[in-house]
């Protein structure tokens, strides 16, 4: 089931291994739901395409990207998964809110992965406007949800290879 992803520029030379041995969680923020829904669809479909069983994929939503960290923490504290994929979209506004949320969620996802020693994948778009987000949620720059899922498989596989 190992296949080469050709449509994703960042992964064009990377062979993605089979996802069939692994369990995943996808935590999706509901802010900018049209964008995050597309990221979720890309991530879920990539996992299944790579052989993950649908019953081995836990899907939950959280209100906004800021809550992705606690959502991932709740999953890792209660469920046995090999990777957790965090999906969100933060669009720059007129206030410094953008910087606070982006910084908090980047640090939070890093820390939660290290806390449980389970890969926690940063699939959060941080864009200046809606157009840039759409371009990365199935538009001309691909689907970053797919890339986050591919990263989750690669990291789960790396973890297993080291055990
Ligand atoms: C408050 C807020 C704002 C202004 N913008 C976004 C955004 O662009 N993307 C996003 O995912 N969430 C946003 N939020 C909500 C915060 O992530 C969070 O849900 C609230 O501050 C409550 O903690």
UniProtKB/TrEMBL annotation:
EC number assigned by the record: 2.5.1.78
Organism: Arcticibacter tournemirensis
Organism phylogeny: Bacteria, Pseudomonadati, Bacteroidota, Sphingobacteriia, Sphingobacteriales
GO molecular function term, any single one: 6,7-dimethyl-8-ribityllumazine synthase activity
Residue positions binding 5-amino-6-(D-ribitylamino)uracil: 31, 65-67, 89-91, 122
Protein name, UniProt field: 6,7-dimethyl-8-ribityllumazine synthase
Superkingdom field: Bacteria
Root EC class: transferase
Residues that bind (2S)-2-hydroxy-3-oxobutyl phosphate: 94-95, 136
């Amino acid at each position: 089931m190992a296949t080469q992803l050709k449509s994703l520029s960042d992964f064009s030379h990377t062979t993605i291994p089979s996802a069939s041995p692994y369990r995943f969680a996808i935590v999706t923020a509901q802010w900018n739901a049209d964008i995050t829904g597309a990221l979720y669809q890309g991530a879920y479909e990539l996992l299944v395409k790579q052989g993950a069983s649908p019953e081995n994929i836990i899907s939950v939503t959280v209100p906004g990207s800021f809550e992705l960290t606690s959502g991932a923490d709740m999953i890792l504290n209660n469920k046995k998964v090999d990777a957790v994929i965090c999906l969100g979209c933060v669009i720059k506004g007129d206030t410094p809110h953008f910087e606070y949320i982006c910084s908090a969620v980047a640090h939070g996802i890093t820390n939660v992965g290290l806390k449980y020693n389970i890969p926690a994948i940063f699939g959060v778009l941080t864009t200046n406007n809606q157009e840039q987000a759409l371009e990365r949620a199935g538009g001309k720059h691909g689907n970053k949800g797919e890339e986050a899922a591919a990263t989750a498989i690669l990291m789960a596989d790396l973890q297993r290879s080291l055990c």
